[in-house]
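Study the following:
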Amino acid sequence: MKKISKAVLGIGVTAVAGLAVLPLTTYATETADVMITANITSTLTLSVSSATVALGTLTPGGAPSTGTTIATVVTNNLTGYTLNIRALAPANVNMVAGAATIPALTTPGALNATPTVSAWGFMGGSVTQFTGVPVADVAIRNTTTTTTSTGDNTTLTFGAFAADGQAAGNYSSTVRLTAVANT
C-alpha cells in the first residue's frame, strides 16, 4: 500500500505542479485583418492664358512680330503628362488670308532667316527655336510626376515674318494643344 500511496502522491504533486504552469482558465481567440482601400481617379486639366495670340500688324520686309500664351496643365497622375502641339487641320499649317498664305517654317531658326520668304512658327517647351507647326501631334513638354495644384506652365511664343511683296490681309491659323496623361 505504501507503494501505491507514494505513486498517487507523486501524480498528485505533478498534477498540482502542472496546474501551476497552466492558466486556471483559457479563452478561445480569433483574429481578423481588415484592408482599407480607396481609389483616387486620375485628373488632368489644360488651360491657356489666351485663346487668341495677336501678332499685330506686320510690315512687309520689316521685323518679325511675336506673341505668347501660357499653357497650364494640372494633374495628379503619378507618371505625369505630355503636352503636344499640332495644326488643327492640315489647312492650318499655313497662316491664311483668302487665297494668300504665310507658310510655316520648314527649317527651325529665325522667322526672317530667308528675308525673301514669309514664314510663321512657334517655339516653347522643348522647342527652343522657331519651327513650323506640324500636321501631327509633336510632344513639346513631358513630365514624369504630378504637378502642383497651381499647375505646370509652358510658355508658347508664336511669330510671323512678312517678306516684301506679301499680300495684304488678316491672316490666321489655329493650333491644337493636347495634354495626355502618361501611362
Remarks:
- Residues 54 and 132 are 17 Å apart (CA to CA).
